[in-house]
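just leaving the lab so this will be short. what follows is a protein written twice so to speak, once as letters and once as structure tokens for the fold. can you read through it and tell me how you think this chain folds. thanks a lot i owe you, the record is right below.

___
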Amino acid sequence: MRKLSQKNNKEKTIRGLSKEEFSWVLYDVGNSAYTLLACALIPIWFKALAVGTGAGQITSDRATAYYSIAIAVSTILVAILGPLCGAIADYKDTKKILFTTAVAVGVVGCILNGFAMSWWIFLVIYVVTKIFYSASLVFYDSMLNDVTTEEKMDEVSSYGFAWGYIGSCIPFLVALVAYILGPDMLGKISNQLSMIIGFVSTALWWSVVTIPWIRNYKQKNYVEREKHAVRHAFSEIFRTCKRIATQDKKVLFFLIGFFFYIDGVGTIIDNCINIGTDLNLDAVGQVVFLLATQVVAFAGSLVFAKLSKKYDTVHLILVCIVGYFCVCLYALTLKSLIGFGIMAFGVGCFQGSIQSLSRSYFSKIIPPENSGEYFGLYDIFAKGASFLGSAVIAGVKLAGGTINVAVATLTIFFALGFVFLKIADKTEGQRDS
């Protein structure tokens, strides 16, 4: 009977992935569409609503400040709520409910964002949507332990980022066409209508490709439900933090290293447009290269997915760190649009891989039954890192340095990340013992 069951499972695989693994990968395809929209078009739509001389409108500088505050607020709230939500999600038969709720609220919020008529309503809806979107990722990442084996974690995680990069381009192109070409080619499409098209198409894509995962997911690793769930979750988080700090040094050193190198990755992603703008590069050319980066990141993630079958996860992450280190040094020579394209190509080679391999490696070194709680802490290090690199960029610029020098300074973060990851790799963890 066991052999027959294994045979049936093999017949149901898709590109080497089981039905559950493939469904899990699809959620990366869905949520990545919202990520790309948030990076490229949402700031533009917000400023179109906010900036002007009419009633209730504000200056461009104030709009930028309010938008930055909104992002900071959502980041802080997710960082605070992430471990608590993750710990509660670890209870038996809870993770799927919380994940589905987070996705549903995020999708509805995405749709409503398109119909916002004033900038402050737009911003409030955006913050709420981003909070639930980020919460869904905490649950989603922690589900990796339920969906696959330790031997396949690197491969499955890499496939998620790979197909996420390429899949996100489909709804984004719909939104981009409506925004840029709509008024000229489709006949007087207003900014409001193009915004509706962009948000609704992204929300539909996000929700449709998530359905298979919601249908197929089963929570295999869990802890028994407590009577006072929230209070127990708080005490469990405190015990876990103490355990990591005093006993499980492998997790501790990894999180420190992850904090540094993911800071460099996030800073480059967040400031890619600023880099080109500071160098007075053509805006359309930048967008073209950034879209091309999605394709390169897709290919790069697939390559590392294959390499993960032969090589150690830590060694592959170290390769990605070295790659980013070289990209930052290359920024010192950056002057032209072609140079910008070369740098974007370099980033694309390692962008998805360093994130996917970090996710799978962390899954391997934590207790699977507490994966939600641990990934809540993981998310704090990921979110908390985003401010430090941007502060360095700002500091270098305010001191009179060029954007080239500012980006090159990020090599410090990758060097520190490299060192702490090496230390983590040589340290024995509780899951190893």
Summary: DSSP finds 20 helices and no strands in the chain. The first helix runs from residue 2 to 11.
